[in-house]
TrEMBL record:
Domain RNA polymerase sigma-70 region: 26-93
Residue intervals of the RNA polymerase sigma factor 70 region 4 type domain: 125-175
Keywords: Sigma factor, Transcription, Transcription regulation
Region entry Disordered, spans: 187-219
Stretches with biased composition (Low complexity): 200-210
Source organism of the structure: Streptomyces griseoaurantiacus M045
Protein name: ECF sigma factor
Length: 219
């Protein structure tokens, strides 16, 4: 059974109250979801915001319907809303730069985008993504890091699939340029360290599971 099929089955089991299945869902989705949140709020607040997102995911899981890809999109949308709430509460702008503009037209394919893809899971690459315009940064993270298809990413962002594909292509092209211009990254793409394991301060899969169990008992 493939990864998507396993995640779909785990989500269904978690909806039925299987705590082990919920932990499996958490382990499968959390690292990439945290990477997305980091591009929005920065390192200092990312774990707290992701924790808030997981508490809502656990609380509302019974209302979800769909397969693995739709679950990733649903979780990303919750995380995005929590991140934007956090930003508004702090009175700050998103970490990612630029204005969110609707892109039209077809971006040219870039061979160097493959190099960018290889480094996207690293802390260094995520910091470079944060330098992209907001629409490109979110499109790249949702499409490549979180692993959403264009339609699901578009639903998460409230845009058309074509606009998300264009933003992702342009973002990857710009990311490849940034990687090529970075002396540290250029000679060591294959030697980049793996993404560090997240330290979840406010919540873990176990604590979310306990919270979900209490919610079910109260119903």
């Amino acid at each position: 059974m493939g990864d998507d099929a396993e995640l779909t089955a785990a989500v269904l089991a978690a909806q039925g109250g299987d705590e082990a299945a919920f932990r499996k869902v958490y382990r499968a989705v959390h690292p990439r979801l945290l990477g997305y949140v980091r591009t929005l709020v920065g390192d200092a607040d990312a774990e707290d915001v992701a924790s808030e997102a997981w508490l809502q995911i656990a609380r509302d899981l019974g209302r979800f319907s769909g397969d693995a890809d739709r679950f990733r999109g649903w979780a990303a949308r919750i995380a995005r809303n929590r991140a934007l709430d956090h930003i508004r509460m702090r009175g700050r702008r998103p970490v990612i730069g630029g204005d969110e503009n609707e892109l039209t037209g077809r971006a040219a394919d870039s061979d160097t985008a493959c190099e960018a893809l290889e480094a996207l899971a690293t802390d260094r690459a995520l910091s470079l993504i944060a330098r992209l315009p907001q629409d490109q940064a979110e499109a790249v993270v949702l499409r490549v890091v979180v692993g959403l298809d264009a339609r699901t990413a578009a639903e998460t962002l409230g845009k058309r699939p074509g606009a998300v594909r264009t933003a992702a292509h342009r973002g990857l092209k710009r990311l490849a340029e940034l990687l090529g211009a970075d002396a540290e990254s250029t000679g060591a793409l294959d030697a980049l360290p793996p993404q560090r394991q997240p330290r979840v301060r406010a919540v873990t899969s176990a604590s979310v599971t306990r919270s979900r169990s209490r919610t079910q008992k109260d119903v």
